[in-house]
Amino acid sequence: MSYGILIVSHVPEIAAGVPKLLKQVAKDVSITAAGGTDENEIGTSLEKITQAMEENQADEVLAFYDLGSAKMNLEMAAEMTTKKVHLYDTALVESSYVAASLLQAGVDLAAVEKQLAPLKIKGDN
Predict the structure, then answer these.
(1) Which 8-state DSSP code applies to residue 5?
(2) Which of 29, 63, 90, 107 is least surrounded by Cβ atoms within 10 Å, i.e. has the fewest?
(3) Is 86 noted as a catalytic residue in this protein?
(4) Pairing relation of β-strands 84-88 and 60-65?
(5) How far is Cα 52 from Cα 27, in angstroms, rounded to an integer?
(6) pLDDT band at 68 (very low <50, low <70, confident <90, very high)
(7) At CA 109, angle to CA 105 and CA 112, rounded to 5?
(8) Dihedral (Cα; 51, 54, 58, 59), 10-degree rounding
(9) pTM higher than 0.85, yes or no?
């Protein structure tokens, strides 16, 4: 079983930048990203998310997103893939960095999720 990371941001530059940061600590973890709308405006794209999910080399994908509305597209994309997708309503940069570094070190999913729990976003999104 292999785990990868998917970053979804409303801003194309954030979606491009976060994986660059993560690769510093997780060179062997498959990390893909989707940012912005199909026109590269602020927002998200179901097509971009689906493509990034399929391009990820892992069997299971840990998906991190910046705003609640991205969750809706992530949930739809998760229904269209054969991969198991885990969605995290956590601080995007911090939690994806923690997950990437732990996955690189071979830590199991339960232990990764335990470390992510304090980074959960409080609220209704």
Answers:
(1) E
(2) 107
(3) no
(4) parallel
(5) 18
(6) confident
(7) 65
(8) 140
(9) yes
d(CA 69, CA 46): 11
* pLDDT for the residue 123: 65
Q: pLDDT-derived band of residue 124, with 50, 70 and 90 as boundaries? A: low
What six digits make up the tokens of 90? 């956590």
pLDDT confidence bin for 1, thresholds 50/70/90: confident
Bridge partners (DSSP) listed for residue 85: 61
| Percent of the chain topping pLDDT 90 | 93
Select which of 10, 22, 78, 99 is catalytic: 10
CATH architecture of residue range(s) 3-119: 3-Layer(aba) Sandwich (3.40)
> Are β-strands 84-88 and 3-9 bridged in parallel, bridged antiparallel, or unpaired?
unpaired
Return d(Cα 76, Cα 120) in angstroms, integer. 22
